[in-house]
C-alpha cells in the first residue's frame, strides 16, 4: 500500500493524528530530504527507515519503490513540507503505482496554496494554481501570458532568489492588479503582504527575502467587489 502523507508546512503541530499513525505503521518512509523528514520523525519519536526520493533521483529510485510495493511492503511518501505531488516529488510514483495496480490513498493535510488564498482577501470561489514559474525570463513571461485573460484568482509559488524578477514580469504581463504575497505561513513570523502588483514590487525591492513565497494575483476584471456583488452583477 502506498500512502501519500501530508506534513506540516512550518508548524510541526499541524500534522494530523492519522498521518502520525500511518508514519508509525508503514515499513518505509519515502522522503524528499531524509534530513528534513528526520527532524519531523524524531520530534514525534517515530523510528522508520527512510528512502530518499527527490527530483534528482526519482527515475532511478522508482523501480525499487514499485518492487517493494509489489512485495507487499507499505510506503509513506512525504515531501519537505505540505502535500506530496503539489509542486513536489510524487507524481511519477503515483502514476507508476496506478499502472502497476498498486493500491494507494492520500492522507490530507497542510498545503501552502490554500492558506495563502484565503488570507489574501482576493476571490476564493474560483482560482488557478500554477505552481513554480520557469526560471528563465522569456519562459517565465510566456508562462504568465497563458493566464493573462483569465478571470480566476491566480496562485504561484516562488523562491526568494527570483521573487523580484517574478513580480516585475507579472506587472508587465497582467498590469497593476490587486495581489498578496504570503511568507513563512504557520511559522512565528508569518506575514501576508497585500497591495497592487506595483506596490508589492516596490516593497520587495528593499524587503529582505527568505523562505519560499506564495503569490496570489487577482484575475482579469476584478475590481475589489465582494463575491456576492460579483454574483449580482453576473445576474
Automatic annotation (TrEMBL):
Residues 1-200 form the Tetrapyrrole methylase domain. The keyword Transferase applies. InterPro entries: 4pyrrol_Mease, 4pyrrol_Methylase_sf, 4pyrrole_Mease_sub1, 4pyrrole_Mease_sub2, rRNA_ssu_MeTfrase_I. One of its GO terms (molecular function) is rRNA (cytosine-2'-O-)-methyltransferase activity. One of its GO terms (cellular component) is cytoplasm. Its main location: cytoplasm. It catalyses: cytidine(1402) in 16S rRNA + S-adenosyl-L-methionine = 2'-O-methylcytidine(1402) in 16S rRNA + S-adenosyl-L-homocysteine + H(+). Gene3D superfamilies: Cobalt-precorrin-4 Transmethylase, Domain 1, Methyltransferase, Cobalt-precorrin-4 Transmethylase, Domain 2. Belongs to the methyltransferase superfamily. RsmI family. This is Ribosomal RNA small subunit methyltransferase I. It comes from Thermanaerothrix daxensis.
